[in-house]
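Support reply, case 0932

Customer input (verbatim):
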Amino acid sequence: MRMNIKTALLAGLLLGGCAALQRSVPAPGDPLPTVIAKFGQPTAVYPAPDGRGQELEYATGPFGQATYMAHMGQDGRLAAFEQVLTGDKFATLKIGTATRDDVLRTLGRPAERSYLALPDLEVWSYRYKESGVWNSMMHAHFDRAGVLRMMMNGPDPMYEDKRPFRD
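Our regenerated output:
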């Protein structure tokens, strides 16, 4: 089978793009330069909640369903690396106590931001796989003071069937 030059070039570009998406997961104890060499430049950096160390965000949004956080210790070494858009991680956020900053440090940046006028709430929405299976969105609702007032999940409309109803 003969492959023409355009097909060969396209195949090479596609394979190169796939290779760029594969990242080497950093290991606990790796210093910051090694974490960046393995996983790339973070999409954001936040101070750790205790003021010692930092949280490196690796968001795949706005359409991705994963955000990875590299928890760097005060010594500049990786303490933990995790995918944070999970039901378990959402459950760690305390209604009435958590703030926007807490949510950013825990989940990273949202896929979408919106505002509900009647209850006067800002909404940050996160795409994720509920139980690793269902295409879902978690919505974090904040009052004007930036305090988390409600969390609500549901299906991700991006994946909903948009065909009209039929008789």
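We compared this against your earlier run and they match. Two observations from our side: The chain has a mean pLDDT of 87. The longest helix spans residues 5-21. Please reopen the case if you see a mismatch on your end.
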